[in-house]
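Entry 12.
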Amino acid sequence: MQVEPTDLPDVLILTPRRFGDTRGWFTETWSAAAMATAGLDLPWVQDNQSFSAAKGTLRGLHYQSPPRAQDKLVRCSRGSILDVAVDIRAGSATYGAWVGVELSAENGRQLFVPKGFLHGFLTLTDNVEVQYKCSDIYSPAHDGAVRWDDPAIGVDWGVTAPILSDKDAKAPLLATIGTPFQMGAA
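Predicted 3D structure (tokens):
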């Protein structure tokens, strides 16, 4: 597995090896041993999958607050997305900074998004499937969101009128809610 850093400390691009022949290819998308070698010895407890029918669908920016905060390992198994992580750890040198990575069924890349980061994605094609592992279960009481177009963050999604859920369209600005995350906290 290839592990690449991003401009945000702790956010990593993981690219599993693919083994192909005339039939197609095989890849190991997750291995406890490989992840531990990469420093990601995490207790994955939930797998999620989403389907978005239309190009331009935006899901995010989401987080789950402590004590139910989640690490995520995200991959796109059909189509293509711009996957985004935003550092919202108070005291972090990169607070409010974001990184975007194209994940697709073709490139096989995965993005590791640790606790303390907002997460969201924009579909770049129609008929997109996204799968991700979480280090804690979903907790509605700890679920939160920040506006996708928060000017203080300034994510360049490449769209001005994405397809949004009501929840995402009505999400507050980060400055309004502050952050439940502290740099260095578990």
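Annotation: The chain has a mean pLDDT of 95. Residues 2-177 form a domain with the Jelly Rolls fold (CATH 2.60.120.10).
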